[in-house]
Automatic annotation (TrEMBL):
InterPro entries tied to this protein: MetI-like, MetI-like_sf
Sequence intervals crossing the membrane: 26-53, 89-109, 121-145, 151-177, 198-222, 257-278
Cellular component terms (Gene Ontology): plasma membrane
Keywords, alphabetical: Cell inner membrane, Cell membrane, Membrane, Transmembrane, Transmembrane helix, Transport
Residue stretches making up the ABC transmembrane type-1 domain: 83-273
UniProt region (Disordered), positions on chain: 284-310
Protein name, UniProt field: Putative spermidine/putrescine transport system permease protein
Cross-referenced CDD domains: TM_PBP2 (cd06261)
Lineage: Bacteria, Pseudomonadati, Pseudomonadota, Betaproteobacteria, Burkholderiales
Pfam families on file: BPD_transp_1
Family, similarity comment: Belongs to the binding-protein-dependent transport system permease family.
Composition skew (Basic residues), residue ranges: 287-296
Predominant localisation class: membrane
Length: 310
């Protein structure tokens, strides 16, 4: 009898637990999910609608008017030069930021003086200024050189100034986390020259930061509008400037089709940034620890070999 009553009591308690209201933590988690999904919808829905507009025969009639690739064909026919120019500018910007930004980040990471911190802040300053202000400064200083002013190199100069901090900062962070000074001292004790240390110790450990910076530079260069709009000429019109022209002077379907083209170019870069992680400091630190252990093991082995020889 007691056993039967006990089992009934347990069943009633289990039923009450099942019917109990969710806890405060569950309500907070649900609210966070709702806010996140609403924010994503607010940001993504306009992009989806713009893409659909570029594939419909008539935007005002919607999908009911039918789907077509006509607008994409017109955009490619009129603006394919802008596509190739944007890729060329982005590639040139990336090459220059790699050649300048990686050594600069290495030097800033190794130096701990106030001067190095001041230089780092000066490098970041163009990000804090509006793109129009930076472009105006370039026009005031270098606009008199007509050969430079009329070429795409002038846009590359502006893009390098704007994107250089996005190369320096991640590389500098990885180099600082990896404790390159200790690693280089270990390599130097094994007889490695500065060039050997830079290419075999510094660059492998800075690779996550270099990769993150390269993806950021490419994405920002392809999508930069404010600075490019001030610096471009009719013969040096990049993708963002062409996009603004299509929305201002042509049908909404053509502007939306141009958005699709822009989307196709930039999305692989954004997906690559997500796939590769871009958590550069942690990755660099783990690789640095492995490399440091390897150097210490090599030093210990060298010391044992020297003792045995004696």
């Amino acid at each position: 009898m007691n056993t039967l009553l006990t089992s009934k009591a347990r069943g009633a308690a289990h039923t009450r637990r099942r019917l109990a209201l969710p806890s405060t933590r569950a309500w907070l988690a649900a609210a966070q999910w709702c806010v996140t999904l609403a924010t994503c919808a607010f940001l993504v829905v306009p992009v989806v609608m713009s893409i659909v507009a570029g594939l419909t025969v008539n935007y005002f009639r919607g999908v009911a008017s039918g789907l077509t690739l006509r607008w994409l064909d017109e955009v490619w026919t009129q603006y394919h030069d802008s596509v190739f120019l944007s890729l060329e500018v982005a590639a040139a910007t990336l090459a220059i930021t790699l050649m300048v930004g990686v050594p600069a980040a290495y030097a800033l990471a190794r130096s701990r003086t106030r001067l190095s911190r001041l230089i780092e802040e000066l490098l970041v300053m163009p990000v804090a200024l509006p793109g129009l202000a930076s472009a105006l400064a370039l026009l005031v200083v270098y606009g008199g050189f007509s050969a430079l002013r009329m070429s795409a190199a002038f846009i590359v100069v502006g893009h390098v100034i704007f994107t250089l901090p996005f190369m320096v900062r991640p590389v500098c962070a990885v180099c600082a986390a990896a404790d390159l000074r200790t690693l280089e001292e270990g390599a130097a004790s094994l007889g490695a020259s500065f060039v050997q240390r830079f290419f075999t110790v510094v660059l492998p450990n800075a690779r996550p930061g270099i990769l993150a910076g390269a993806l950021a530079v490419l994405t920002l260069s392809i999508g930069e509008f404010n600075l490019t709009w001030m610096l471009h000429t009719p013969d040096t019109k990049t993708l963002p400037v062409g996009l603004a022209d299509t929305y201002a002077s042509m049908r909404i379907e053509i502007g939306s089709a141009y958005t699709i083209l822009f989307f196709v170019m930039t999305m692989p870069l954004l997906l690559a940034m997500q796939w590769l992680g871009v958590q550069t400091p942690g990755t660099g630190a783990r690789k640095a620890q492995k490399t440091q252990k390897t150097h210490k093991a090599q030093q210990a082995q060298q010391a044992r070999t020297h003792q045995d020889a004696q």
